[in-house]
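Whiteboard transcription, Tuesday session. T.W. wrote the structure tokens on the left side:
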């Protein structure tokens, strides 16, 4: 297809594209997708080639029929039937809290095996975010004692978790 066909296609586009777009939009059809349908109909006319040699009324009828079929096929497609436009986004992905809940339950159970002194410093430091100095002041003991209880409390907690199947 040479320059003659290109000129003919350009002429047919100029003559029929707006009319086809208005026709497809009335089906009813999305205006942006209607442009795609018109483009596809004109592309099929270009690929056929022989249709472009026919008289204008035949070309017009052929283009309208092709555009109509393309639009109706798309409207009947699963994509169109199942997809809906919305202004409100659906809820975002939310983490499953089951794992976190089970882990918390496991740690709580293991903490219950510690002595009161060890549990106070471990919970105060890790869950309370308290410093050694703060814990020493609140518990009325020396900072070295807090460190010692923390060390042995963590060792006992590690052992309790290992007994429950948690590995390092």
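and on the right, the sequence the group agreed on:
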């Amino acid at each position: 297809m040479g320059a003659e066909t290109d000129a003919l296609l350009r002429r047919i586009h100029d003559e029929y594209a707006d009319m086809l777009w208005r026709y497809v939009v009335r089906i009813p059809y999305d205006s942006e997708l209607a442009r795609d349908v018109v483009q596809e109909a004109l592309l099929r006319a270009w690929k056929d080639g022989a249709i472009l040699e026919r008289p204008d009324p035949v070309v017009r009828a052929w283009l309208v029929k092709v555009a109509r079929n393309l639009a109706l096929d798309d409207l009947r497609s699963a994509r169109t039937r199942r997809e809906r436009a919305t202004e409100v986004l659906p809820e975002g992905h939310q983490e499953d809290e089951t794992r976190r809940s089970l882990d918390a339950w496991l740690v709580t159970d293991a903490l219950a095996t510690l002595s009161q002194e060890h549990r106070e410093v471990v919970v105060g430091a890790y869950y309370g975010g308290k410093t050694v100095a703060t814990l020493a002041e609140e518990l009325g003991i020396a900072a070295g004692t807090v460190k010692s209880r923390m060390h042995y409390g963590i060792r006992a907690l590690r052992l309790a978790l290992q007994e429950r199947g948690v590995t390092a």
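Someone added at the bottom: The helical segments are 3-25, 31-48, 56-76, 78-82, 98-111, 116-126, 132-139, 143-163.
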